Amino acid sequence: MEDIGIVNKVAQSGIVTIDLEDIIPEREEAHIDIKEQLFQGLILKEKDFRAWVKENDWSAYADKDVALYCSADAVVPTWGYMLISSALRDATANVFFTPPENLNAMVVERALVDLDPSDYEDKRVVIKGCGDREISNHAYVVLTSKLVPFAKSVMFGEPCSTVPVYKKRK
Fold first, then answer.
1. Do both 46 and 70 map to the same domain?
2. Same domain for 118 and 162?
């Protein structure tokens, strides 16, 4: 009897694995609610606001994803958010105009924007489903939406144990 050794059928299958942990950076987040800077909780006074922006220590936001928002029901002029964004330029480039609960979705979308789905044209793709970090469902949905028009099939899990998500019709 001839000994052919162990054959790795997963490696021979042509399956491409995408690990979202490799695409979405590990990160810290911070939130800036300008509600406390409003005069009587209603309006932004330019002189006072500019002084606050100038005096604030923005280094606390270094290398963090920052959600910039106002939780008060107030009309805040656009330039107010722009001033904070410009003040943060030396600390971080990752400033998002969003309430904190939407920050993760915006970070995911920014991270996935550079993924070229045509690289997966007619390929069998497994989106890795477990890892060391918690990845939001939003990331999986966005990635799947990008891949479906191109991939031959999309699966979830590990190459040795997958859940079929999509298969291109012949």
1. yes
2. yes
